[in-house]
C-alpha cells in the first residue's frame, strides 16, 4: 500500500493548476557532454567537471568538419559519428517525495543507454523513437545529487541513407506525478460520429497505478474549445482500481463541432482529471481535432466531405545547417515556407518525427503520413536498424502510434519505405504482422507503405495489410493502376525526385534530362562542378520532373495526391553522388531555405496568390541563347520585353505549366507582363546587374523571444550601384554579432560548400547566403554586422524580449 496519497507543492496539497504546471518539465538545460568519455561514464563518482556544458537538443555531428573519409560517407552527409556521453546532476526537493518520477526522451540517435545513479534503466537502439523510463526507485532526496547519464552510440556507420545527426537531438522531459496518474501517452481520443451538427468523442484513458494505490478513483474528461471554454464534460465516479493499468472509456456528445481542416485547423483539447477521495491528483491534456475523411478508389481523398488533392512533400528530419537538433521555430519556418508554396501535406520520411513537428502540423494544417521504418529485417546500409528489427520492431511501431494517434494532422500510417522484402515471401508475413499491430493500435486511419514494385505480385501488397496502396515513382504506370489493382485506393507516397541547384541554369532547357547517373563508381553524366540546372528539366532516372508529375496527379482523382521528394534539400544523399557534394539536390527549397524556381510553379498551381515568376537572371554573355521561363496564374497571357522591345505574347497551351521564350542575350532589362482580358495583372522586371557594391540583410522576423531558443533567419545578398541584386555573386561575407543572441549557423544552399556550418563567414552562392541567429535568455537588442572586401557593410538590428 502506498501511503502518501496526496502530492505536495511547496509544502501544501497541490491545486489543479499547480498539478498541471508541476507535471512535465523540459529537462534540457546544463548537461555535460563528452565525445571522449570512458566506457563507464555512467558512474556517479566520475569527475565530469572538465566536460563541455550545453543545453539540449544537441547534435554533435553537425559541429564536425566535412570529410569523405567519415564512415557515414557523403551519403550520410560526410560528417562524423562516434560515441557521445551526456550527464546531468539534479536535486529533488521534499515535495518530490511520494511522487512517481519519469524521464521522457523524444529521440536519441542512436543505440542509447540511460543510467540513473549508476543503474542502467534501459537501451533503445532506434534513433527516432520516443521513450520513457521510471526513475522513482533509484532517486535521492534531501540534498543528495542524482546523476543521469546517457550514452549515444553512432559509431557503427554507415547506418543511414541520409544524414542522421548524433546525440540527444530532441527534447528531454521530467515528469512528476501522483502514483495514480494518466499513463504515458495514456489517452486515445477518436470521433466515431461526426457531421456538421454533432459529434461523438470517444475517450479511452489508461490510468496507471504505479504504487499499489487501492480503492476507487474518479475520472473526469472535459472538452475545451480553442479559447479554453468547456464544451462538454463527463465524470465517472467510484472506478475500482483493479490493475497497474486501468482502462476507462467515456463518450462526449457535442453539437455544431468546429471541424479541423488544412485551411482552418481548429483544435480542441481533452483535459483528463483524476481524483482520489475528492482531491485532484492528476491532470493531463490531449489536443485533438474533429475531422472526417476518406480515400476512395475513384474520387481519391476527401476531407470533411470535400474533395482535396494531397499536395504533400517528403522531408527528412534535419534542419539544414542546424543539423538534427530540434528547434521549433526552425521547423515552423520550414512549414511556413512550404505553406507559401501551397503544400498541404508532409510525409515524415522515413521515420517517426519529433513531436513538435506534429504539433505544428496540427496547428498549421497539414495532412501527415507518419512513417515507421525505412527497412525491416533486410538492411539497406551495413549497420542500419535491420540489426535490431527482430527485437524491437513491434515495440517501436506500437510506441510511435501510441504517441502520435491523437494528432488530427496524422491521416496515414506508413509501415515502411521501399522495403526490400516486397520482392520476397517474407514481405507477406512481416507486412501482415505489422498490419495487425497497426490496426490494433489505431483502427481509424489507413495503413500504407511506399512500394516500388508496381505489380500485384508485390508481397507487401499481397499481404492485404494496406488500406491505401502507396507507390514511390513509376509515374509512367499511374494510369494503369485502376486496371492492375482493381478497386484499390492509391496515394503517391513519394514522387518526382527532380534535381536542381538554386540559381544555376543550363541551356537548352526544353529537353528533359534523367541524370546524373553514377555507374560502376564512375560519374557518367552531369556537370563536372556538380551543379544541376534549375529549369525544371532534370530528374533522377527513377523519377520525373515537377511538371511531369503534377500534370499526371492533377489529371487522376484516384491517385489522391502526392508527396514530392522533397520539400527541402537535406544533408546527405547528394545526387550527383560525388564528393564534395554532401547534401541533396531534390528539394523544391534549398538547404538554407531559399526557394528554387519550381517553388513558383507549385505556387501558381496550388495557391490563390497571383503569381508571375520569371527566370533566369539577366547576366549572361552577349549573344548567348537564353531560355526565359515564366510561371503565371490568374491571367490569360504573358508578354515579354527585352529592352522595351516585345519578344512576343505567350499563353500556356493544353496542360502546360509554364511559357518560354528563347532570346539572344543583350544586357539591359527584361520585363514580363501578365494580362487578363487585356488588363495588366502583374509585372516583373529583371535588370542586368553590375559589380556588387553593397551588402543588404533582411530578417524573417525582427521581434524575437528571449528564451534561448527563438531564431531569426537573415537573408544576405549584394547589390550593384543601381540597387540590382547581383545574381552570380560569390563574395565572402563575414558576420559579427553583438547583444543577446548568437550566430547558430551560416549557409548558402550550395550542396558542395565544405566550410563548417558554424563558421561566422560564408561565401554567397548564386548571390545569396543565410545567417541563423538564436536568442539567449536575456532580452535586449541584437546587432548583426556584415562585412565583405570592397563592399559597403550592412547592419541589422533585432529585438529580443
Ligand atoms: C527513394 C527513397 C528516398 C530517396 C529517394 C531519392 O527511392 O525512398 O529515401 O532515396 O529515392 O530519389
From TrEMBL:
<protein>
    <submittedName>
        <fullName>Glycoside hydrolase</fullName>
    </submittedName>
</protein>
<dbReference type="InterPro" id="IPR006103">
    <property type="entry name" value="Glyco_hydro_2_cat"/>
</dbReference>
<dbReference type="InterPro" id="IPR048229">
    <property type="entry name" value="GalB-like"/>
</dbReference>
<feature type="domain" description="Beta-mannosidase-like galactose-binding">
    <location>
        <begin position="85"/>
        <end position="159"/>
    </location>
</feature>
<dbReference type="InterPro" id="IPR008964">
    <property type="entry name" value="Invasin/intimin_cell_adhesion"/>
</dbReference>
<dbReference type="InterPro" id="IPR023232">
    <property type="entry name" value="Glyco_hydro_2_AS"/>
</dbReference>
<dbReference type="InterPro" id="IPR054593">
    <property type="entry name" value="Beta-mannosidase-like_N2"/>
</dbReference>
<dbReference type="Pfam" id="PF00703">
    <property type="entry name" value="Glyco_hydro_2"/>
</dbReference>
<dbReference type="InterPro" id="IPR051913">
    <property type="entry name" value="GH2_Domain-Containing"/>
</dbReference>
<feature type="domain" description="Glycoside hydrolase family 2 immunoglobulin-like beta-sandwich">
    <location>
        <begin position="188"/>
        <end position="291"/>
    </location>
</feature>
<dbReference type="Pfam" id="PF02836">
    <property type="entry name" value="Glyco_hydro_2_C"/>
</dbReference>
<feature type="domain" description="Glycoside hydrolase family 2 catalytic">
    <location>
        <begin position="301"/>
        <end position="566"/>
    </location>
</feature>
<dbReference type="InterPro" id="IPR006101">
    <property type="entry name" value="Glyco_hydro_2"/>
</dbReference>
<keyword id="KW-0326">Glycosidase</keyword>
<dbReference type="Pfam" id="PF16355">
    <property type="entry name" value="DUF4982"/>
</dbReference>
<dbReference type="InterPro" id="IPR013783">
    <property type="entry name" value="Ig-like_fold"/>
</dbReference>
<comment type="similarity">
    <text>Belongs to the glycosyl hydrolase 2 family.</text>
</comment>
<dbReference type="InterPro" id="IPR008979">
    <property type="entry name" value="Galactose-bd-like_sf"/>
</dbReference>
<dbReference type="InterPro" id="IPR036156">
    <property type="entry name" value="Beta-gal/glucu_dom_sf"/>
</dbReference>
<feature type="domain" description="Glycoside hydrolase family 2">
    <location>
        <begin position="695"/>
        <end position="797"/>
    </location>
</feature>
<dbReference type="InterPro" id="IPR017853">
    <property type="entry name" value="GH"/>
</dbReference>
<feature type="domain" description="DUF4982">
    <location>
        <begin position="623"/>
        <end position="681"/>
    </location>
</feature>
<dbReference type="InterPro" id="IPR040605">
    <property type="entry name" value="Glyco_hydro2_dom5"/>
</dbReference>
<dbReference type="InterPro" id="IPR032311">
    <property type="entry name" value="DUF4982"/>
</dbReference>
<dbReference type="Pfam" id="PF22666">
    <property type="entry name" value="Glyco_hydro_2_N2"/>
</dbReference>
<dbReference type="InterPro" id="IPR006102">
    <property type="entry name" value="Ig-like_GH2"/>
</dbReference>
<dbReference type="GO" id="GO:0005975">
    <property type="term" value="P:carbohydrate metabolic process"/>
</dbReference>
<keyword id="KW-0378">Hydrolase</keyword>
<dbReference type="Pfam" id="PF18565">
    <property type="entry name" value="Glyco_hydro2_C5"/>
</dbReference>
<dbReference type="GO" id="GO:0004553">
    <property type="term" value="F:hydrolase activity, hydrolyzing O-glycosyl compounds"/>
</dbReference>
Amino acid at each position: 500500500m502506498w501511503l502518501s496519497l496526496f502530492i505536495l507543492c511547496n509544502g501544501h496539497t497541490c491545486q489543479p493548476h499547480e498539478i498541471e504546471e508541476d507535471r512535465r518539465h523540459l529537462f534540457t538545460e546544463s548537461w555535460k557532454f563528452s565525445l571522449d568519455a570512458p566506457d563507464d561514464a555512467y558512474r556517479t563518482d566520475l569527475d565530469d567537471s572538465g566536460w563541455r556544458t550545453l543545453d539540449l537538443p544537441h547534435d554533435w555531428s553537425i559541429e564536425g568538419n566535412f570529410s569523405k573519409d567519415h564512415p557515414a560517407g557523403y551519403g550520410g552527409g560526410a560528417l562524423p559519428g562516434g560515441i557521445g556521453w551526456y550527464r546531468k546532476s539534479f536535486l529533488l526537493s521534499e515535495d518530490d517525495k511520494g511522487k512517481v518520477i519519469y524521464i521522457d526522451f523524444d529521440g536519441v540517435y542512436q543505440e542509447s543507454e540511460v543510467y540513473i545513479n549508476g543503474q542502467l534503466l534501459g537501451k533503445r537502439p532506434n534513433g527516432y523513437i520516443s521513450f520513457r523510463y521510471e526513475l522513482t526507485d533509484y532517486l535521492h532526496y534531501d540534498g543528495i545529487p542524482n546523476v543521469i547519464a546517457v550514452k549515444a552510440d553512432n559509431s557503427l556507420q554507415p547506418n543511414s541513407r541520409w544524414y542522421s545527426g548524433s546525440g540527444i537531438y530532441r527534447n528531454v522531459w521530467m515528469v512528476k506525478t501522483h502514483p495514480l496518474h494518466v499513463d504515458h501517452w495514456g489517452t486515445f481520443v477518436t470521433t466515431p460520429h461526426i457531421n456538421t451538427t454533432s459529434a461523438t468523442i470517444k475517450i479511452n484513458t489508461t490510468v496507471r497505478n504505479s504504487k499499489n494505490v487501492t480503492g476507487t478513483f474518479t475520472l473526469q474528461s472535459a472538452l475545451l474549445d480553442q479559447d479554453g471554454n468547456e464544451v462538454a464534460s463527463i465524470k465517472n465516479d467510484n472506478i475500482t482500481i483493479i490493475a497497474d493499468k486501468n482502462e476507462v472509456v467515456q463518450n462526449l456528445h457535442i453539437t455544431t463541432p468546429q471541424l479541423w481542416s488544412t485551411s482552418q485547423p481548429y483544435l480542441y483539447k481533452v483535459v483528463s482529471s483524476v481524483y482520489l477521495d475528492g482531491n485532484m491528483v492528476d491532470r493531463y491534456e490531449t489536443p485533438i481535432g474533429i475531422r472526417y475523411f476518406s480515400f476512395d478508389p475513384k474520387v481519391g481523398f476527401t476531407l470533411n466531405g470535400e474533395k482535396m488533392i494531397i499536395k504533400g512533400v517528403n522531408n527528412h528530419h534535419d534542419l539544414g545547417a542546424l543539423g538534427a537538433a530540434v528547434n521549433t521555430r526552425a521547423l515552423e519556418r520550414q512549414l511556413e515556407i512550404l505553406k507559401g508554396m501551397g503544400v498541404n501535406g508532409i510525409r515524415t520520411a522515413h521515420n517517426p518525427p519529433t513531436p513538435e513537428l506534429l504539433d505544428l502540423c496540427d496547428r498549421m494544417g497539414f495532412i501527415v503520413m507518419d512513417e515507421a521504418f525505412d527497412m525491416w529485417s533486410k538492411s539497406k546500409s551495413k549497420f542500419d536498424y535491420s540489426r535490431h528489427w527482430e527485437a524491437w520492431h513491434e515495440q517501436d511501431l506500437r510506441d510511435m502510434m501510441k504517441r502520435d494517434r491523437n494528432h488530427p494532422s496524422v491521416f496515414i500510417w506508413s509501415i515502411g519505405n521501399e522495403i526490400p522484402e516486397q520482392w520476397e515471401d517474407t514481405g507477406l508475413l512481416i507486412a501482415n504482422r505489422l498490419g495487425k499491430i497497426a490496426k490494433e493500435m489505431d483502427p481509424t486511419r489507413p495503413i500504407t507503405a511506399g512500394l516500388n514494385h508496381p505489380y500485384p505480385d508485390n508481397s507487401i501488397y499481397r499481404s492485404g495489410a494496406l488500406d491505401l496502396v502507396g507507390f514511390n515513382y513509376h509515374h509512367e504506370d499511374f494510369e494503369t493502376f485502376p486496371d492492375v489493382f482493381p478497386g484499390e485506393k492509391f496515394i503517391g507516397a513519394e514522387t518526382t525526385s527532380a534535381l536542381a541547384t538554386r540559381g544555376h541554369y543550363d541551356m537548352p532547357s526544353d529537353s528533359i534530362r534523367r541524370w546524373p547517373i553514377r555507374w560502376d563508381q564512375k560519374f557518367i553524366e552531369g556537370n563536372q562542378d556538380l551543379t544541376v540546372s534549375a529549369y525544371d528539366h532534370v530528374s533522377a532516372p527513377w523519377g520525373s520532373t515537377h511538371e511531369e508529375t503534377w500534370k499526371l496527379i492533377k489529371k487522376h482523382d484516384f491517385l489522391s495526391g502526392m508527396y514530392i521528394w522533397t520539400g527541402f534539400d537535406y544533408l546527405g544523399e547528394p545526387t550527383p553522388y560525388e564528393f564534395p557534394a554532401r547534401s541533396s539536390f531534390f528539394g523544391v527549397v534549398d538547404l538554407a531555405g531559399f526557394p528554387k524556381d519550381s517553388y513558383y510553379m507549385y505556387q501558381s498551381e496550388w495557391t490563390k496568390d497571383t503569381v508571375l515568376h520569371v527566370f533566369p537572371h539577366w547576366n549572361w554573355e552577349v549573344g548567348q541563347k537564353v531560355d526565359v521561363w515564366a510561371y503565371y496564374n490568374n491571367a490569360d497571357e504573358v508578354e515579354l520585353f527585352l529592352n522595351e522591345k516585345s519578344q512576343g505574347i505567350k499563353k500556356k497551351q493544353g496542360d502546360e505549366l509554364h511559357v518560354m521564350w528563347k532570346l539572344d542575350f543583350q544586357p539591359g532589362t527584361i520585363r514580363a507582363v501578365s494580362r487578363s482580358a487585356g488588363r495588366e495583372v502583374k509585372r516583373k522586371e529583371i535588370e542586368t546587374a553590375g559589380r556588387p557594391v553593397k551588402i543588404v540583410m533582411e530578417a524573417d522576423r525582427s521581434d524575437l523571444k528571449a528564451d534561448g531558443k527563438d531564431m531569426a533567419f537573415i537573408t544576405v545578398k549584394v547589390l550593384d550601384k543601381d540597387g540590382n541584386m547581383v545574381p552570380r555573386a560569390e563574395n565572402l561575407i563575414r558576420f559579427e554579432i553583438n547583444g543577446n543572441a548568437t550566430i547558430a549557423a551560416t549557409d548558402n544552399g550550395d550542396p558542395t560548400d565544405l566550410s563548417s556550418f558554424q563558421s561566422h563567414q560564408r561565401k554567397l552562392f548564386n548571390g545569396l547566403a543565410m545567417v541563423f541567429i538564436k536568442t539567449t535568455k536575456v532580452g535586449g537588442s541584437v546587432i548583426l554586422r556584415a562585412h565583405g572586401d570592397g563592399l559597403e557593410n550592412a547592419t541589422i538590428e533585432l529585438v529580443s524580449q
